[in-house]
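Researcher: Quick test of sequence recovery. Tokens follow.
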């Protein structure tokens, strides 16, 4: 809209005032001025409505409105001349009168001719827009129905099983919050992406917690954007410690899928030709060299870069800097989090609320976190919060440092145990999902809490917006492995946890954490290695580590060791040998290949060790004579691991793990057998072998596991029969054989499992009938099965009172491919 359009209302107002004066003073212009005054009185509301609507017009209507603005300006100038004209100058007054008559006719023609046409055009536009909105609403409803249809819920062990397809749980959580103050940013970024062919790489930048990622996800979900790119949108989180090769491979594969329907074996010369429109969103980018490697200059592909850093124009064609929220939007977001409403509720202390909001400095994350911490609190708590926020003076010029000091209020109000658990979350890498099972292993040993209390604590932290549960907590029932549930956390909240854990000197911290990935152990640790480190949690984040890369350190009080790395070789730190109080080890490889682990024998002296979590590593064959027992080890979890087991291995697992109660092996795809010595581990209560596609059989003397309560053999396609001796498992309560597609039958012996309460046998197409012995399963309460075999179980309901048969719907879920 032209600049004159914005002033048209003011011009008309001043002109009207002058014409009233002229009507009284100049008799020659009285009639024309009166007619012009009436016309402008009718036109003024319309001009003001156009002025304040904020709607852009097409070129034709814009030109007409510009002409009207010029006519009004001419009328204004004419009125000034009439006002200054002397009464005795009759000739001049006559000329001015004729000019005013001509101006009045011109405005009347606009009112009587063009204006009705404008109205008809507006009515047409409204109808079209309403139709489009209803179409979008119908499309959104249809997508919601599809998403709800894909949310398969089936009771399992007194809980519920959730299967999410094509839904980002983070997005679901964000949809429950208001995206206030984002419409302007969303419009500007959309214009850069959709309307400017010359802008290939665009950016969104702003401080941590300002809503950059939320805005990027809004752009990704926008109907116009999805339609423009035909849903060809890839969203990647880069982070401060990225695996650049893996990210490049994902982008390459994505672009190949867009152009060649998944054929990745192509050269760049083929990909560099015109490609169907595609959008790559790179979130949380920290370094220019990393960004430069992730930008693929392919015709048709655009890249949206989200970062705290404003990268140079040599890399970004254009960038939008996300502004902090204005007072009105900040109050709205804060009230939504604190009261569940979009405005200050009646009866609340408006001044107090605005004072607290003002201290959040317009930062969305601070408003949500502090608002959640004050939810349902007393007025005294609010006043105390306001006073403490007022004292949170910045220790430097960084807004982010000031934010950490202010957000610390939300942590101080937690109970000591919940506060400790929140601070523990800072021990894990940024932008990585934390498996719930890992937290249970750590907090059970470190905080003396059981699994049920872990869920309560996570629920409280989630309610206060201090973390996000990636899957519904109902999935974690008593028969379900918790590694299917994860926790995620905003990087600013992780920074807050590290900030609060680092207030003491490095040797006296309770948590010794490497905040970012480094090539080796931090120099600060090396400089202070002459004194023992008193941390209870030690977290290391590196690349490849060899024996010479470690130096001598003492951790006399360490109970938890978290080793995160990304490489194909890793030498376990020698100082583990002297960690006499070590109770939990978490070893996770974030690299693209399975890592070879060296120096595994260092665990031999960890006699107090109670849990092991190994992920994406290769475990070598352990010689019997050099392997020391781990008498207190209770839980072992092996995910995506290569396990070197020989068919006639002499390794006695009952000797190494005499007190083992829980063994989990997931996606250990090369494991074809279990050593028979596992059956001599008399203490084993839970055995979970899932997605192990090479597993062909279980040991012959499986029935010796007399204390086994839960047996999960999920998605093992080569398994053809259950082990002999299963009738001796008198304590077995739950068995899961779902997706064992080649399992022929349930053994007749299963009738001997007198304590069995639940059977999950979904997607076992080879099982067509049931053994007669199932009629003796008097404790059986729930069966999950397919429709083909369900009628057999329904017939059993007469002989087994209380039995509930649940028929599973087919669910084709490939979400695991994104992990």
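Model:
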């Amino acid at each position: 809209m032209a600049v004159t359009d914005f002033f048209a209302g003011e011009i008309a107002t001043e002109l009207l005032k002058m014409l009233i004066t002229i009507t009284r003073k100049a008799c020659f212009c009285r009639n024309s001025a009166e007619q012009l005054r009436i016309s402008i009185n009718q036109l003024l509301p319309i001009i003001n409505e156009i002025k304040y609507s904020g709607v852009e017009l097409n070129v034709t209507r814009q030109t007409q409105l510009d002409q009207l603005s010029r006519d009004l300006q001419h009328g204004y100038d004419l009125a000034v001349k009439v006002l200054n004209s002397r009464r005795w100058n009759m000739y001049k007054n006559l000329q001015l009168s004729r000019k005013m008559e001509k101006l009045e006719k011109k405005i009347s023609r606009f009112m009587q001719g063009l204006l009705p046409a404008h109205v008809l055009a507006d009515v047409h536009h409204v109808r079209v827009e309403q139709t489009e909105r209803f179409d979008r609403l119908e499309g959104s409803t249809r997508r919601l129905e599809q998403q709800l249809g894909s949310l398969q819920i089936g009771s399992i062990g007194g809980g519920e099983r959730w299967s999410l397809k094509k839904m980002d749980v983070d997005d679901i959580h964000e949809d429950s919050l208001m995206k206030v103050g984002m419409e302007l940013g969303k419009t500007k970024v959309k214009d850069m992406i959709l309307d400017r062919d010359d802008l290939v790489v665009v950016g969104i930048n702003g401080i941590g917690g300002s809503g950059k990622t939320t805005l990027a996800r809004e752009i990704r979900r926008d109907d116009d954007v999805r339609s423009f790119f035909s849903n060809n949108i890839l969203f990647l989180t880069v982070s401060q410690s990225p695996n650049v090769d893996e990210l490049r491979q994902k982008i390459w594969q994505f672009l190949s899928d867009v152009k060649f329907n998944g054929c990745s074996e192509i050269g760049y010369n083929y990909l560099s030709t015109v490609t169907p429109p595609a959008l790559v969103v790179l979130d949380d980018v920290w370094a220019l060299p990393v960004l430069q490697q992730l930008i693929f200059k392919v015709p048709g592909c655009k890249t949206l870069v989200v970062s705290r850093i404003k990268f140079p124009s040599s890399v970004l064609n254009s960038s939008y800097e996300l502004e902090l929220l204005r007072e009105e939007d900040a109050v709205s977001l804060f009230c939504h989090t604190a009261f569940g409403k979009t405005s200050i509720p009646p009866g609340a202390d408006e001044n107090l609320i605005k004072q607290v909001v003002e201290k959040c400095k317009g930062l969305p994350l601070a408003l949500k976190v502090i608002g959640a911490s004050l939810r349902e609190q007393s007025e005294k708590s609010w006043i105390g919060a306001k006073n403490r926020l007022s004292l949170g003076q910045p220790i430097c010029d960084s807004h982010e440092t000031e934010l950490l000091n202010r957000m610390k209020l939300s942590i101080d109000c937690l109970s000591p145990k919940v506060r400790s658990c929140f601070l523990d979350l800072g021990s894990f890498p940024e932008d990585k999902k934390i498996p719930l099972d890992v937290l249970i292993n750590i907090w059970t040993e470190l905080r003396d809490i059981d699994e049920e209390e872990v869920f309560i604590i996570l629920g409280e932290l989630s309610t206060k917006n201090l973390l996000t549960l990636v899957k519904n907590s109902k999935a974690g029932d008593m028969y379900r492995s918790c590694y299917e549930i994860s926790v995620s956390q905003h990087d600013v909240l992780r920074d807050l946890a590290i900030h609060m854990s680092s207030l003491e000197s490095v040797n006296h911290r309770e948590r010794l954490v490497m905040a970012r990935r480094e090539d080796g152990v931090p120099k600060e640790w090396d400089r202070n290695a002459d004194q023992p480190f008193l941390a209870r949690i030690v977290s290391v984040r590196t690349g490849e580590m060899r024996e010479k890369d470690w130096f001598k350190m003492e951790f006399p009080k360490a109970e938890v060791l978290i080793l995160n790395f990304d490489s194909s070789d890793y030498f376990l730190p020698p100082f583990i040998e002297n960690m006499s109080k070590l109770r939990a080890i978490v070893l996770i490889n974030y690299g693209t290949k399975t890592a070879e682990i060296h120096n595994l024998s260092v665990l031999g002296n960890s006699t107090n060790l109670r849990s092991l979590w190994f992920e994406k590593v290769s475990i070598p064959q352990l010689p019997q004579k050099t392997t020391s027992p781990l008498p207190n080890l209770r839980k072992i979890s092996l995910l995506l691991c290569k396990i070197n087991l020989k068919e006639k291995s002499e390794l006695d697992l009952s000797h190494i793990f005499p007190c083992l109660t829980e063994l989990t092996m997931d996606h250990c795809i090369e494991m074809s057998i279990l050593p028979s010595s596992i059956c001599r581990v008399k203490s084993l209560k839970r055995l979970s072998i899932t997605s192990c596609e090479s597993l062909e059989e279980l040991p012959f003397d499986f029935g010796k596991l007399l204390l086994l309560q839960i047996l999960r053999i999920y998605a093992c396609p080569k398994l053809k029969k259950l082990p002999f001796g299963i009738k001796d498992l008198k304590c077995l309560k739950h068995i899961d054989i779902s997706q064992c597609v080649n399992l022929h039958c349930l053994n007749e012996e299963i009738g001997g499992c007198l304590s069995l309460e639940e059977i999950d046998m979904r997607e076992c197409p080879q099982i067509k009938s049931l053994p007669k012995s199932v009629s003796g399963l008097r404790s059986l309460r729930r069966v999950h099965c397919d429709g083909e075999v369900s009628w057999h179980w329904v017939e059993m309901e007469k002989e087994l009172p209380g039995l509930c048969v649940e028929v599973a719907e087919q669910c084709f879920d490939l979400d695991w491919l994104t992990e």
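DSSP finds 23 helices and 27 strands in the chain.
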